[in-house]
Amino acid sequence: MANNVPVKSDQHKNLKVASQRSLEHVSDQHIAPINALEFAQAATSYPIILVKEPESSNYRSVVMLGLEAGENLYYSKAKWDAIYVPQSVSLVPFSLGLDPEKEKTLTTCIDLDSPFVGEDKDNALFDADGKETDFFKSAQESLGRLYESEVMTDKFIKELEANDLLLELELSITYNNNQNKKLVGLFGINEKKLTELSDEKVIDFHKRGLFIPIHAMLGSAAQINRLAQLRNQSNSKQKVSGIRFTPVTAEAKK
User: Long-range CB contacts (< 8 A, 24+ apart) of 132-139?
Assistant: First the structure.
C-alpha cells in the first residue's frame, strides 16, 4: 500500500529519489491508467479499453497488462517487455493528491514507503536553502501535464458517450485444456455508429483531433493477441489457444 503524502519543504527537506527506478511496483497490476494523448504510442503495445469506475458511472481509459487480476504479462525478470511505458506507471514515486491545507487544490505527493525514496538516494527535492531543485520541478511539470491530459481524456470519453460511440465488449479466452473464460465490463468504440456519424460531425471530430485517439483505440484491439503470446511464453500452465473481443448483445445483458 502506497503512503502518499504532500511534499512539504519543511518536512521533506532532506528527502531524495533514486535515479534508477524499476517498475516492480506494477508487477501484479493487470491494468494501468492511460490518457488519450498516449493512445497512439500505447496502441503499438497494449489493448486500450474503457472500464467503468465501480463507485460511479464514469468511464476511465486503461491499457490491459494481463488476462486476470494480479497478472502483469509485460513485467518479467525485472524488465518491461514494451518500449512505451504509460505515464501513470513511469512517474512513480510521485503522484497528484489533494492539499490538506488548501481546499480543492491538487499538489505533488510522494510515496514515503517507496524503495526509491529516502535520504540516502541520488536526487534531492530541495537544495540547502530549501528551494526546489530542477529535478523536483521537472517531476512537478510532468505531473501537471499528466493532469491536463487526464482532463482532456475525460472530455474525450464524454464525447464518445454523447455520440453513442461506446460499445460494451467481453473478452473470450479459450485455453489449451478446453476451458473457457470471459472478461466482462469492458468498453470500446462502436465502429458501426462511427461510420454513421453525419458529415458535419465527422468534420467537427477531424478538426478537433478526436479521430486520432478513436482510431488508436480501434487498432489497439489487435494487441490482445500479444497478451496471449506473452501468456503462452510465461511459466503459466494454462496456455491460450484462442482469444477475441466480442460485442455484448442486448440478450446477454438481460
Answer: 132/9, 135/17, 136/7, 136/108, 139/17, 139/91, 139/94, 139/108
Report residue 208 CA to chain centroid gap: 23
Please provide residue 33's backbone torsions phi and psi, each rounded to the nearest 5 degrees. Answer: -60, 145
Q: Please say whether the beta carbons of 241 and 176 come within 8 A.
A: yes
Is residue 60 within a helix (H) or strand (E), and if so which, with residue range?
Answer: strand 59-64
Which residues lie closer than 8 Å to 57 by C-beta, 6 or more apart? none
Cell of 12: 521533506
Which amino acid, residue 213? P
Q: Give percent helix, percent strand, percent coil of the chain, each to the nearest 5.
A: 35, 25, 40
Tens digit of pLDDT for each residue in 155-211? 999 999 999 999 999 999 999 988 999 999 999 999 999 999 999 999 999 999 999
